[in-house]
């Protein structure tokens, strides 16, 4: 453990953490680029690094991008990422009052504090959860994957039938390759390159990066070119620190909300700040200020969003179940280094885990410092023409897919995945269930096969307590979601009935 | 457009389901079940859309629906530039194709200046090529310019 911590404090690790944070802020600050996209694009680069350095860099990109989205949100009311919508409400109102430096500073410090608190949760909860997960057998993994997919299906805002279609499509994509039991090729259509299945990294780049390049190109062609804003003054750290200290209770509550929601697979950093903002409004002495430039509102949003980052990594590292789309892409990075996320990773490579934990803590500290003193300089990135950004994204997407195996076949897989992502977007199927099912599909099938081999019937699953609890939880989630949907449909009908009466 | 895309996906799933029916015994159950599940929910979604209860395209693709002719043409050039890049890469080498693809795609997206992008795309392609040969060691397809660069780097290093 101490070796791992010492490795994270080395100059190389600090340099990599800082590079990740800076790159992440760049990706987050430019509207149209997201944390998920940034991580997917830079996975091939991490191939040159050691596993722990890869994870530190990717977590730096993740944390930096989530924070970076608030820069354009505050200055222009254009969220750099979907997670910065609430920051735009509060921060932009403050900027219009001439308080842009204070808003940028509050965003940086509260993001950093939220990130550090979730890093502490990651450090203390993950090993405990991983120890517990060592009791998992094949039936428990089947139940856990089913529970994760149920959460995604019922908690997303899109229609349940669209989410279910997405899950099954993801499972179909994951089934391409060699049959895990018989070893015969399945759905490969004669391509031997598909015997090991679709490459995770090429598929993820195709899902998240290439379509975004096309959308940015479209916006540039349509004339949504460049953005402009005035000169921004320097932030005063002491003023910022005093404001955050005054709102300490909000910070702690928002961090708890962000970390807790981050653990759930479907609740990413996009919806977390809205919930945290609503909760703080109820506790606020002056709730009428929320949405009109409230410092507490901005602090709660930024703290919860950054806390969500660490929270989403807890189930990934402890159980192998990603807590968000961006965390799902970490699986690709770990796979590239021959590591399987889950409880056994703590036993086989504890050095990697402890280096990463310390590195993640350091990443959040670096992000705070960079944000406090450098946010106004990152704002210059907002002046880059979208057409140029789109072209370079396309180049790096192709090169990223090629670089994994130096094979053009992976590039075609990337294009195919991009076409698939555009296609399901047109139909109205969200990408998150597809990604989650694609990542978890192999785990589900293998463990299902093992569980069936050991048991005569499915009742075997109900004889194991952990499995029973997970199945009961899945049924409960479905029941609650169904009851709420029925309630929502009845309310307009009841209102109509009252009107007629 | 939505119905056409849905129909394509359903046709693909029907093909996969027919393949799954050919797998032996119990090992064919899982792929058959997931193909049928995907077919069922996709068909249900298509029926909802035909009945007028469907939703608009997702966030990433919503804006792409309903393109004007000029915009569609330029966007087509952007996409073709990168498809062409991958097709020509094995024949024309990394430096030339990267330079051409970047320049063409920047022009297609409406760049005001013509010479500046030509210059910085060339510098970028050359810089990445040098990085690939000296630091990253990623083998890329080569043509004459790439071979000249190889010889230059070798003579400098020697």
Task: Walk me through the structure.
The complex is a heterodimer of chains A (501) and B (158). Chain A contains 22 helices and two strands. Chain A has 501 residues and is mainly α. The longest helix of chain A is centred in the last third of the chain and has 36 residues, at 465-500. Chain A is globular, with a radius of gyration of 23 Å. Chain A starts with a helix and ends with a helix. The model of chain A is unreliable at 494-501 (pLDDT under 50). Chain B has helices at 2-20, 29-50, 69-92, 94-108, 115-136, 144-157. The chains are: A mainly alpha (501), B mainly alpha (158). Chains A and B meet through helix 8, helix 10, helix 18, helix 19 and helix 20 of A and helix 1, helix 2, helix 3, helix 4 and helix 5 of B.
Jot down its keywords.
heterodimer, A: 501 residues, mainly alpha, two-stranded antiparallel sheet, 22 helices, 2 strands, 76% helix, globular, disordered C terminus, B: 158 residues, 6 helices, 0% strand, flat
Order of helices and strands of chain B: HHHHHH
Strand content range of chain A:
under 5%
Note the beta-strand portion of chain B. Answer: under 5%
How much is the average pLDDT of chain B? 84
Number of strands of chain A: 2
What is the CA-atom radius of gyration of chain A, in angstroms? 23 Å
How are the elements arranged and paired?
The complex is a heterodimer of chains A (501) and B (158).
Chain A lengths: L1 H7 L2 H19 L5 H12 L4 H26 L8 H12 L3 H34 L4 H18 L4 H15 L2 E2 L6 E2 L13 H9 L1 H13 L14 H10 L1 H16 L8 H12 L11 H25 L5 H12 L6 H6 L1 H29 L7 H20 L2 H20 L3 H24 L4 H4 L2 H36 L1
Chain B lengths: L1 H19 L8 H22 L18 H24 L1 H15 L6 H22 L7 H14 L1
Helix pairs in contact in B: 1-2, 3-4, 4-5, 5-6
